[in-house]
Amino acid sequence: MPSGPDSFVSDPQYSREFERARGLVLAHPQRWRVIYHYDADGIASASSAVRAFGRLGYPVQLTPLIGVEREKMHTLLSATKGPVLIVDTGSSWTDLYPAHPHPVVVLDHHTYRGAPHPPDLPAHVAFVNPLDWGVDGMSEMCAATLTWLFSIFLDPLNWDNAPWALSGAIGDRQHVGGFHGLNAILVDEAIRRSALVRRPGAALLGPTVGAALATSIDPYFRRLSGRRPAVDTFLRELSIDPETPPLTLPEEARHRLVGALRARLEAGGVLPEFVALVDQERWFLPSLGRDAEELSNLQSATGRAGTPSLGVAMALGDARAFERAQVEETRWRTGILSTLLRLEEQGVNERTALRWFESRETPLAGTQAGMAMSYLLPPDKPVIVFSGEGTSSLKISGRGTLRLVADGLDLSAALQAAAKAVGGEGGGHKVASGATIPPGTRDRFLDAADPIIAAQLRIRGAT
């Protein structure tokens, strides 16, 4: 088994990028500004970074970014009189970093123009992206596992950042179908080092089986999620007491429940990789005494509540931060459930090559899109969600599936081009991407995006 990070990838670009980034960090023992995306992956990335900098004795200043915000990045760099670490964002703005007079280190897994050939950057800028060394940033490495890996390059003690790496990967849904690629190598090594424990189990997060199913969003169960009376009836028909704590559910009853839940998802046309989440292996975090998905949800909730620093505070051992995050997680889950219930009852809007709907909660739109794509909508088209109506800009979240990507879908390219056509900007991954466009341009954006996606998927009829 590997014992250090140097041998994980054979491509020489891998070592060059990490060594350049490590050299800049170690050569500048001072206050660093850490800029991060406000979702679970970004918060988890910032958590590993802050813990690693703390071990080095470096103070940090944390700054979250909410969307594709080029101008805000420019403003932050101009206002920062010292080195900057950028995690889970920044690949689209490599032209901004050379002008910053201090070191800039970017750790990002999103695609960029020219990938996998990184731009020629000055010595004080390090750009680390798994795409450059043959690792898929969409499915084999997220920003949190990338930042975890970088922290190990800084100091092997940082293997204990495993909880924050795993929670970020789950937040980016790279656990669907099980971890693979470089993620799997890192997870296996962390298990060997007792930083993680792999466990079988069912997707039941809650004090009782009934409460877990009634509040379940991933998986989302048609006619059960958000409907406690229906859940109780369903469980009693399986001879299961709804008040049973999940961990005390007898093995035979658990198998019966898992079989019924899988059958329900399959009957609804849910793809096998999402059906498998019902009883896919789970990861226990010994240092925290909780499930990695539970931690991921707490981080997602704090970010979407506008308090991402609370998510980072959990990584620093703040017990009150966990308590406050749990309150936000309940609100976050309720907000997602309410939209999924609405979509289940009312449906979504159709275009030739895409589906779309509007969300009342901008911070939750991306998660709502992902859950709708996974559990409510046919898998033949991606879905786009608009939010922020009535504000200075319209936010867009797009979600597809890896199967659509295999058929040609590239949401990053589609949303970027369609946003540019209406005076906005976008970017991300082929399977999940975002954009920001001026108010009042929704229909023009759709008119631009629909034929692009139709061409990618070879669907006829888009105009």
- Counting structural domains, the number is 3
**Mean pLDDT, rounded to whole units?**
94
List the uncertain runs: none
Structural class: alpha/beta
Supply the CATH class of the largest domain: Alpha Beta
Give the name of the CATH architecture of the largest domain. Answer: Alpha-Beta Complex
Alpha plus pi helix count: 17
Distance between the termini: 54 Å
Rg estimate, integer Å? 22 Å
Helix content: 40-55%
Q: What percentage of the residues does DSSP assign to strands (E)?
A: 5-15%
Task: Give a structural overview.
The protein has three domains: 12-199, inorganic pyrophosphatase (n-terminal core); 209-338, no CATH class; 347-457, Diaminopimelate Epimerase, Chain A, domain 1, CATH 3.10.310. The strands form three sheets. Strands 9-10-11-12-14-13 form a six-stranded mixed beta sheet. A five-stranded parallel beta sheet has the order 2-1-3-4-5, with helices on both faces. A three-stranded antiparallel beta sheet has the order 6-7-8. Helix 11 packs antiparallel against helix 12 (308-315) and helix 16 runs antiparallel to helix 17 (442-457). The model has no long low-confidence stretch (mean pLDDT 94). Strand 13 (425-428) and strand 14 form a beta hairpin. The chain has 463 residues and is α/β, with parallel strands linked by helices. The protein is globular and about 65 Å long. Helix content is 44%, strand content 13%. The protein is built from 17 helices and 14 strands.
